[in-house]
Specification:
The protein is mostly beta strands. It has one domain: Immunoglobulin-like (Sandwich). The strands form two sheets. Strands 1, 2, 4, 5, 6, 11 and 12 form a seven-stranded antiparallel beta sheet that branches. Strands 3, 7, 8, 9, 10, 13 and 14 form a seven-stranded antiparallel beta sheet that branches. The protein is globular and about 45 Å long. It comes from Zoarces viviparus (Viviparous eelpout).
Length: 237
């Protein structure tokens, strides 16, 4: 049974509940046109195995911000969530929640902040648009746009939680990406490289060029000269 939503206008969202949407999420474009973060590594969001996955496309917004186009997919009978944090030491993280109502198995969307110290969730608002979501069994998929973000580097947190009807339960983080440059789709390629990703090897140490003398060669030359002076001095007399 599939239930979902479509919201085509920008709004300050705290909680929305709608129905009837189709959402298709794949790895196509990961590392090239979109930044992808997932657990387990390289899992397939369009498959049947457990996969908590998000992708981000950042488009510049004047004067200095960006609009983030988000895909989010995960396995949960409650909710899945994308967290964004500008600072590892930040007290709160903004959570964008795609959820299934435990009473009706219908999709709803919510935004909250979570306190890193005590895990307390607080309803929040943020301009979003084009929210689409669907629930198929325990698989939740959604897409949405975050209208304006002014931090070029953010940490992505993925996690899940429970719902009681439309009430959001505690957030359980499953992955923290660490700081990522969201406008660079390949900014985490090395960190999340799997068997199908080739990472660049460290550049080899090149021989000295241009006639410059390396420090160890200078020390060796000075030692040789000192020894020669001592030998000449000892032969005088």
């Amino acid at each position: 049974m599939e239930r979902g939503l479509t919201l085509l206008v920008a709004a300050l969202v705290a909680h929305l509940s709608f129905s009837n949407a189709q959402v298709d999420i794949t790895r196509s474009g990961c590392g090239v046109t979109k930044l992808c973060v997932e657990t387990p590594d390289d899992c397939a969001p369009d498959g049947t195995d457990n996969c908590l996955f998000t992708s981000v496309i950042a488009a510049p917004v004047a004067p200095s911000g960006a609009m983030l186009s988000i895909e989010l997919r995960g396995d949960s009978s409650g909710y899945i969530a994308l967290g964004l944090s500008a600072d590892a030491s930040a007290v709160t993280t903004m959570l964008f929640i795609c959820a299934s109502s435990s009473a009706t198995n219908t999709f709803f969307f919510s935004i909250m902040t979570v306190n890193s110290a005590d895990g307390v969730l607080t309803p929040a608002t943020e301009p979003v648009s084009d929210v689409n979501g669907m629930v198929t069994g325990d698989v939740i998929k959604c897409t949405f746009n975050i209208m304006s973000v002014d931090a070029p580097t953010l940490s992505i947190i993925l996690g899940t939680g429970t719902t009681n009807g439309a009430t959001i339960g505690p957030f359980n983080a499953a992955l923290n990406s660490g700081p990522l440059v969201l406008a660079n789709p390949a900014s985490n390629v090395v960190a999340t490289a799997g068997p199908n990703v080739t990472t660049a090897a460290a550049p080899p140490t090149m021989p000295n060029s241009g006639g410059a003398v390396q420090p160890h060669a200078v020390l060796l030359l000075l030692s040789v000269l000192s020894l020669a002076v001592m030998l000449r001095g000892g032969s005088c007399g």
